[in-house]
Amino acid sequence: MSTVKKVPQRQCIGCGEMKNKRELIRVLKGTDDVISIDATGRKNGRGAYICPSMACFEKAVKSRGLERSFKMAIPKEVYESLKKEMEQIDEQK
Questions:
Q1: Predicted structure pTM score
Q2: Who's near 59: CB < 8 A, 6+ residues apart?
Q3: What domain range is 55 assigned to?
Q4: How far apart are CA 28 and CA 41, in angstroms?
Q5: What is the pLDDT of residues 73-93, one digit of tens each?
Q6: Does residue 61 lie within any of the structural domains?
């Protein structure tokens, strides 16, 4: 009897689709309320997941997905730095 490893699923805060955790980017709210992108997916704190596409990022901004996930107001600067990081990820593809 072989054990099939279950692939963890997460919901994108932009499009709302369930996808494999590995396909998504983790946005992290650390213990000091600093919001950043967690490339490793292992840092401590509250995570929200988003597809690596600008369309999903824009939907998340519009629908206030991060505010809902982290239950706090998100400063404009945070969105701007996330957008820069998302653009870099987009360029790598």
A1: 0.83
A2: 14, 15, 65
A3: 9-92
A4: 9
A5: 888 888 888 888 878 876 765
A6: yes
